[in-house]
Amino acid sequence: MTTKKLFLFFPKCETEKPIIYHLVKDFGLIINIFRAKVTPDEEGYLALDVTGEDANIEKGVEFLKTFGVNVDPFNKSLRWDASRCTHCGNCLTHCPTHALKVADRQTMRVAFIEELCIECLACVRNCPYGVCTSAF
Ligand code: SF4
Ligand code: SF4
What is the torsional sign of CA 16, 19, 22, 23? Predict the structure, then answer.
């Protein structure tokens, strides 16, 4: 069993179809959705974990593509602009996984450890300088 992170973009005409249901039922995949959004233009974004046999994940991805769904290996939608960070530390207590942490106790410089980020977006809401932003 493998778990892959995927970032899906659904065109407007496909957002109401039970595509995720078919991934579970037809390909035996376990789906864990991190985040979902439908834009005002009725396009859909999903960030999810897909767990299953490699071959079934591949078939599921091909199935998604037949609907015009854009499938990307999960690139985190969170962006952390190091050049703008003032190292104020305001985000630190809001980050549940310590993806944002003090990297150097002497300088108190803050660092972002991307692998630990679970996309909760708490830092987007709590960074006063707009260092943390989300693509969706
Ligand atoms: S999105 Fe959440 S987990 Fe990721 S860095 Fe921001 S607060 Fe931490
Ligand atoms: S709140 Fe923003 S500016 Fe302050 S340390 Fe965190 S990312 Fe940097």
Answer: negative
